[in-house]
């Protein structure tokens, strides 16, 4: 397969339009109605609103996963070709196919159009067509560098080619496929042959009959009596006129269908143009407002006015967190009547309840958008208070997005519909995410401006400290105290957390440098979110790993438990990253004790760090995870003792006394595997965990 020779692997790049996958979904609903589509898509790492968005694209990894689940659910290995054929009858993506294809009067023209249309449904291959005869066409598919197509995709393509012919002749085309990338060739070649359509057959009959009739009439004129000759001429004339009228009727019907399809296509395109234009105006106007106003109340009033004018939602509102970060309080909105306004003003979303399962609270804490097309589908998962609130609001479908600035949630944007309109899509989330980002930046700018105006002296201290590389907790402490002695050390009780990615060095051989950095940055960003939420901070990076500290510079009463919680959550999150075609493996070492903390370096370059045996032992315990594969988390006895009241402590097992590198003594080690320790129970009690919803890859 020629595509595999490229070092630029595109397995995790968006290559396939949601319209292709939607055709599969329509097929499943039609032939396998008992399959739970929500569960099916979840197994394939896809969502309904991504499918509804015609502009959304899926990766090779996702479509491979989708097809694997499809075969498991249906028990059929030949289903890809049948799905391709289904495009001729499908009411969703098949409709798009008819709009583009049936607008032409012949299959030849339709197959020629396929070369132009293919780029809108797949970025994985280049399609070329060549007409061989009036009812035969050559179609060539050339994989793009880095693309690794599977055999089922070749079968699906043949099904689509067969379906195109059926749109004209009501019969599938015949396919000759002797050249295939899966047989070692550089490309796939398909020779498509179809039966001629009735319209073209009757046209030919008409032409032949007219010619034959004229010659017959001329010949009969000389050999038959004039009366018989006249009767023959009348008969042939009537026959020709009848055939002409019939063929013209067929042609007119085809033209009517063509015009209707072209009309539908034009309306669809014009609607998309209007939507895109309106969206661009929305972003432009919000950008102009956010760049010109520093008063929060005026800023939010302008934004909701623009939302009401430009968004296709019945209502919308903005909630902001209070100063104590215990409540989400309604700030401003549009589309709400007086009664609903009173409800919103008096109802707050409680953030200080760790067991709250409300969508708004979960969106705020997890920093994750939620899209619900039918509120009734989630009613059972809501508390009685939330159900009552939704009932009072009268909401049918909604989108809830967090307003996040620099990793911290500061509010929430909510839009909803009172009546079921078009299905909500991924593009709606993308558009609204752009708005919330601008709102977050503007609110932060307004708050920062206000603080800077109130305190000139604090601004000077901040500027001095920002010139150095100092962790955020240290900056906060120095700003509050005014102490700028950067080289003052201190002794503190901490828990050291060492992490290392398994097999990353070997995987570097298959990754371009920028891909490797993108992968690490994306992963470390997720780790940083988890660690920060547990009160720790990443102190330094060690290439494909890092050192994190819990308990300093800000004192944490339960730093041992917080470090262990972070280790469990990071292990769960890491499984969503694909490295070497499988979930990524890591090793984590934990040790607690006293350490010296302070800024180490020179006046021009320094870093805040911890030194001492506590840090060194944690690093050595991490190395032990290479020998104990069943225990990705290994801790010291001191950590084990510190977890005496932890709900997962019973899942920790004693690994015995071990010799560790660089130490003369022996240490008692304890191992833990989150999957075997029922860490899901921990996640249920801690809504601050931010899981990945799908693999994006690098």
What's the layout of helices and strands?
Blueprint: E1 14-17, H1 18-31, H2 37-43, H3 48-52, E2 57-59, H4 60-74, H5 79-86, H6 93-101, H7 107-117, E3 125-133, E4 136-143, H8 151-169, E5 174-179, E6 188-193, H9 198-223, H10 226-292, H11 296-310, E7 315-321, E8 327-334, H12 338-346, E9 349-350, H13 359-366, E10 370-372, H14 384-393, E11 397-405, E12 408-417, H15 426-454, H16 456-466, H17 472-481, E13 490-501, H18 504-507, H19 513-533, E14 537-541, E15 545-550, H20 559-574, E16 586-601, E17 606-611, H21 613-624, E18 633-636, H22 637-642, E19 653-659, E20 666-672, H23 680-684
Parallel strand pairs: 16-18
Antiparallel strand pairs: 1-2, 3-4, 4-6, 5-6, 7-8, 7-12, 8-9, 10-11, 11-12, 13-15, 13-16, 14-15, 16-17, 18-20, 19-20
Helix pairs in contact: 5-8, 6-10, 9-10, 10-11, 10-15, 11-15, 19-20
């Amino acid at each position: 397969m020629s595509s595999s020779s490229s070092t630029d692997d595109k397995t995790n790049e968006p290559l396939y339009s949601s319209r292709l996958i939607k055709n599969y979904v329509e097929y499943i609903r039609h032939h396998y109605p008992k399959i739970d589509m929500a569960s099916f898509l979840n197994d394939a790492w896809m969502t309904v609103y991504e499918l509804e968005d015609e502009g959304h694209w899926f990766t090779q990894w996702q479509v491979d996963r989708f097809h694997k689940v499809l075969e498991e659910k249906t028990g059929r290995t030949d289903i890809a070709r049948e799905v391709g054929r289904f495009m001729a009858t499908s009411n969703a993506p098949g409709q798009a196919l008819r709009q583009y294809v049936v607008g032409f009067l012949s299959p030849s023209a339709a197959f020629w159009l396929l070369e132009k249309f293919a780029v809108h449904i797949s970025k994985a291959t280049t399609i070329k067509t060549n007409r061989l005869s009036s009812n035969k066409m050559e179609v060539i598919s050339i994989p793009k560098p880095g693309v690794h197509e599977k055999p089922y995709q070749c079968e699906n393509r043949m099904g689509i080619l067969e379906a195109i012919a059926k749109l004209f002749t009501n019969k599938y085309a015949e396919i000759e496929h002797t050249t295939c990338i899966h047989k070692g060739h550089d490309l796939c070649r398909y020779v498509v042959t179809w039966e001629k359509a009735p319209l073209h057959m009757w046209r030919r009959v008409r032409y032949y009959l007219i010619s034959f009739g004229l010659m017959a009439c001329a010949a009969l004129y000389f050999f038959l009596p004039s009366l018989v000759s006249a009767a023959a001429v009348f008969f042939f004339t009537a026959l020709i006129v009848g055939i002409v009228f019939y063929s013209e009727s067929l042609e007119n019907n085809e033209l009517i269908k063509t015009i209707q399809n072209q009309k539908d296509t034009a309306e669809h395109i014009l609607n998309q143009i209007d939507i895109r234009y309106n969206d661009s105006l929305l972003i432009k106007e919000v950008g102009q407002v956010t760049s010109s106003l520093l008063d929060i109340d005026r800023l939010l009033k302008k934004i909701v006015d623009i939302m009401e004018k430009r968004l296709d939602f019945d209502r919308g509102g903005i909630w902001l967190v209070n100063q104590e970060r215990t409540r989400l309080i309604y700030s401003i909105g549009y589309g709400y009547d007086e009664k609903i306004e009173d409800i919103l003003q008096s109802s707050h979303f409680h953030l200080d309840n760790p067991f709250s399962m409300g969508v708004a609270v979960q969106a705020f804490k997890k920093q994750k958008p939620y899209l619900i097309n039918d509120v009734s589908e989630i009613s059972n998962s809501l508390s009685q208070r939330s159900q009552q609130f939704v009932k009072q609001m009268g909401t049918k479908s909604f989108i809830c997005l967090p307003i996040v600035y620099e990793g911290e949630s500061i509010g929430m944007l909510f839009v909803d519909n009172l009546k079921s309109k078009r299905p909500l899509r991924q593009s709606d989330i993308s558009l609204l995410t752009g708005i919330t980002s601008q709102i977050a930046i503007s609110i932060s700018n307004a708050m920062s401006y206000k603080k800077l105006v109130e305190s000139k002296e604090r601004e000077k201290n901040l500027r001095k400290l920002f010139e150095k590389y100092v962790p955020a907790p240290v900056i906060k402490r120095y700003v509050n105290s005014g102490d700028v002695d950067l080289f003052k050390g201190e002794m503190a009780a901490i828990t050291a957390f060492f992490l290392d990615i398994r097999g990353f060095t070997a995987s570097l051989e298959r990754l371009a440098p920028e891909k490797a950095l993108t992968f690490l940055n994306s992963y470390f960003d997720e780790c940083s979110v988890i660690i920060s939420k547990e009160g720790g901070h990443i102190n330094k990076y060690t290439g494909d790993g890092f050192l994190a500290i819990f308990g300093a510079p800000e004192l944490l009463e339960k730093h041992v438990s917080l470090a262990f919680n972070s280790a469990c959550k990071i292990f769960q999150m890491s499984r969503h990253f694909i490295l070497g075609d499988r979930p990524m493996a890591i090793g984590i070492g934990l040790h607690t004790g006293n350490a010296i903390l302070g800024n180490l370096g020179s006046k021009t370059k320094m870093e805040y760090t911890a030194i001492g045996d506590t840090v060194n032992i944690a690093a050595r315990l991490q190395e032990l995870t290479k020998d104990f594969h069943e225990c990705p988390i290994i801790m010291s006895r001191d950590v084990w003792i510190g977890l005496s009241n932890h709900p997962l402590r019973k899942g920790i097992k004693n690994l015995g006394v071990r010799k560790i590198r660089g130490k003369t003594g022996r240490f008692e080690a304890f191992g833990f595997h989150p999957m075997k320790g029922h860490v899901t129970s921990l996640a249920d009690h801690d809504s601050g965990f931010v899981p990945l919803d799908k693999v994006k890859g690098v």
